[in-house]
Automatic annotation (TrEMBL), chain A:
The species this protein was found in: Planotetraspora thailandica
Pfam families per UniProt: ETF (PF01012)
Record-level Gene Ontology MF annotations: electron transfer activity
Subunit-level organization: Heterodimer of an alpha and a beta subunit.
Gene: fixA
Cofactor: FAD
Protein known as: Electron transfer flavoprotein subunit beta
Entries under SMART domains matching the protein: ETF (SM00893)
Annotated keywords: Electron transport, Transport
Domain Electron transfer flavoprotein alpha/beta-subunit N-terminal: 23-212
GO cellular component term of the entry, any: cytosol
InterPro entries: ETF_a/b_N, ETF_b, ETF_beta_N, Rossmann-like_a/b/a_fold
Alphabetized CDD domains for the sequence: ETF_beta
UniProtKB/TrEMBL annotation, chain B:
Organism, scientific name: Planotetraspora thailandica
Cofactors required: FAD
Entry similarity comment: Belongs to the ETF alpha-subunit/FixB family.
Assembly and oligomerization: Heterodimer of an alpha and a beta subunit.
Role, per record: The electron transfer flavoprotein serves as a specific electron acceptor for other dehydrogenases. It transfers the electrons to the main respiratory chain via ETF-ubiquinone oxidoreductase (ETF dehydrogenase).
Stated name of the protein: Electron transfer flavoprotein subunit alpha
InterPro entries with a match to the protein in the record: DHS-like_NAD/FAD-binding_dom, ETF_a/b_N, ETF_a/FixB, ETF_alpha_N, ETF_asu_C, Rossmann-like_a/b/a_fold
Gene3D superfamilies to which the protein is assigned, alphabetical: HUPs (3.40.50.620), TPP-binding domain (3.40.50.1220)
Length: 259, 317
């Protein structure tokens, strides 16, 4: 089975994240880049499916040169090879452009299964997997907390408000996974060393036949009008519990008409 | 007046509160048309949508719409966008709502904005990003603006609309039938409201100490008619089911009132609740960062404070 797992490098959520004042895009230099946490579950799921059914795991990422750090991590976990879509023309791409560019790259690479994390911790749109399914005309098997493959048949549990749906489809398909679908492995020392020798192919937009007028900030389908640091919340009242903390909290709730 | 499509969220035939919020919001932008997708449509649902201002109600109530994942709803909306040329489309920013918005955006070659906490003139959407640290205003620049709005962003206000019903026939494409729902499994959550929709959320964290102890969080929640949430520390420890996790990698909530008990307030958690209107904190560590965003905080043992608060609320009822 040919599995492609999409990963994204995101700013570390533990550091202060900013938008750039010049073009209002994410300031990728202001913070350390890390693998988007939910993508680690996607990589793990891809590796488990490969271990059970055979095949190959290809890491696909789109991002600036430094995103190779993220590729190396996924390769160190055990993926076989990687494709890095990188081009200055891609800077400022929104979800529509990103899904378009990734879909074009996926058509080049070929796949039986595409796996993604259900959202990224920076933009948090949660739309990419659905957009990819739409663009590729492939079944959308998203928000999965369980994935089972049997030959060409694939079944997932899709997390819903009320519990979950069991969803069936045939490969090729697009899967997104939620946290806790598995426990992502840590790269071993051997894995880290091996990752250095694994092939990483770099695609510019021409290589992947990505149309320049469909990507980048100037072609985005939406724009940031303005942004500002959120005003700090007005300092609240903090009391020390002297045996009546619950009563005082109730009085506060009553003053706000919650009780 | 320009037409605004509002995709109706419903469960067991009842219109969800977020839809009433969206209709209220849509009235400030144009004339709302509700779009009902899937079975369960009734006179009661129609009356509710009209009460909150739906001028039109498009009804596509076939089973088939919900037999497949997301794609049929996106096809229905795309068909309406193409036939009616609305000024914009509003959906609830639930996990599925955002996926529908995403597919619709691709189908109609339109921009999409997710997790808006407000939408103003010219369809300019407000978002709170980076765990609540930055406020952004953005707008769609191509196609029909599609905006996914977070539940609890607008207070629902009734104002009658005509509620003119129009049946819509959708011929689903083969690709829309690619992912078939073969079973729906309902997991018990009792009478509590849904986490992302609830007006009040009571969450417990590491300080709760065990799964059994979550009963005191649940009792407080029940006294307020609230949903129960949990921090990642609590769900990772297996004290509370993962689907109730509030935070960066879990659910994002924006209720009127958020009560955090035994939660320190790491960015992981704050990212999921920082846009709550009023925040009450109970924690024994006065240095916990969660106090920085509290409107009211009690430094104390949650095992003393929470039961006392519950008892006091019951007394005042």
């Amino acid at each position: 089975m040919n599995i492609v797992v999409c990963v994204k490098q995101v700013p570390d959520t533990a550091t202060e994240r900013k938008l750039r004042s010049d073009d209002k895009t994410l300031d990728r230099d202001a913070a350390d880049g890390v693998v988007n946490e939910l993508d680690e579950y996607a990589v793990e799921e891809a590796l488990r499916l490969k271990e059970a059914h055979g095949g190959e795991v290809t890491v696909l990422t789109m991002g600036p040169a430094r995103a190779t750090e993220t590729i190396r991590k996924a390769l160190a976990m055990g993926a076989d090879k990687a494709v890095h879509v990188t081009d200055d023309a891609l800077h400022g791409s929104d979800a529509l452009s990103t899904s378009y560019a990734l879909a074009e790259a996926l058509k080049k690479i070929g796949f039986d299964l595409v796996i993604l994390g259900s959202e990224s911790t920076d933009a948090r749109t949660g739309v990419l997997a659905a957009m990819l399914a739409e663009r590729l005309g492939a079944p959308q098997l998203t928000l999965a907390n369980k994935v089972e493959v049997d030959g060409q048949a694939i079944t997932i549990q899709r997390v819903t408000d009320y519990g979950y749906d069991r969803v069936e489809a045939s490969l090729p398909a697009v899967v997104s996974v939620v946290e806790k679908i598995n426990e992502p492995r840590y790269p071993s020392f051997k894995g880290i060393m091996a990752a250095k020798k694994k092939p990483v192919e770099t695609f510019g937009i021409a290589d992947a036949e990505i149309a320049a007028d469909q990507v980048g900030l100037a072609s985005a389908w939406s724009e940031v009008v303005d942004f500002a640091a959120a005003p700090p919340r007005a300092a609240g009242t903090v009391v020390k519990d002297e045996g009546d903390g619950g009563v005082k909290a109730a009085e506060f709730l009553a003053s706000k008409k919650f009780v | 007046m320009s037409e605004i499509l509002v995709l109706v969220e419903h469960a067991d035939g009842d219109v969800k509160k977020v839809t009433l919020e969206l209709l209220t919001l849509a009235r400030s932008l144009g004339e709302p048309s509700a779009v009902w997708a899937g079975p369960g449509y009734s006179d009661a649902a129609k009356a509710k949508l009209a009460e909150y201002g739906a001028a039109k109600i498009y009804v596509a109530d076939g089973e088939e719409i919900v037999d497949y994942v997301v794609a049929p709803k996106a096809e229905l909306l795309a068909q309406l966008v193409s036939e009616r040329s609305p000024a914009g489309v509003l959906v609830a920013a639930t996990a599925e709502g955002k996926e529908i918005a995403g597919r619709l955006a691709v189908k109609t070659d339109s921009g999409v904005i997710t997790d808006a906490v407000g939408v103003g003139e010219g369809f300019v959407a407000e978002q709170s990003i980076f765990g609540g640290g930055v406020n952004v205003r953005s707008r769609v620049t191509k196609g029909t603006p599609i905006v996914a709005v977070r539940p609890n962003s607008t207070a629902p206000v009734a104002e009658a609309g005509a509620g003119a019903e129009e049946k819509v026939a959708v011929a689903l494409s083969d690709t829309a039938r690619a992912a078939k729902v073969v079973e729906r499994v309902k997991q018990e959550r009792g009478a509590r409201p849904e986490l992302t929709e609830a007006a009040i959320v009571v969450s417990g964290g590491r300080g709760v100490g065990s799964g059994e102890n979550f009963s005191i969080i649940e009792k407080l929640a029940d006294s307020l008619g609230a949903a129960v949430g949990a921090s990642r520390a609590a769900t990772d420890a297996g004290w509370y089911p993962h689907q109730f996790q509030v935070g960066q990698t879990g659910k994002t909530v924006s209720p009127q009132l958020y009560i955090a008990a035994g939660i320190s307030g790491a960015i992981q958690h704050r990212a999921g609740m920082q846009t709550s209107k009023t925040i009450v904190v109970i924690n024994k560590d006065a240095e916990a960062p969660i106090f920085e965003i509290a409107d009211f905080g009690v430094v104390g043992d949650l095992f003393q404070v929470v039961p006392q608060l519950t008892e006091e609320i019951e007394k005042r009822k």
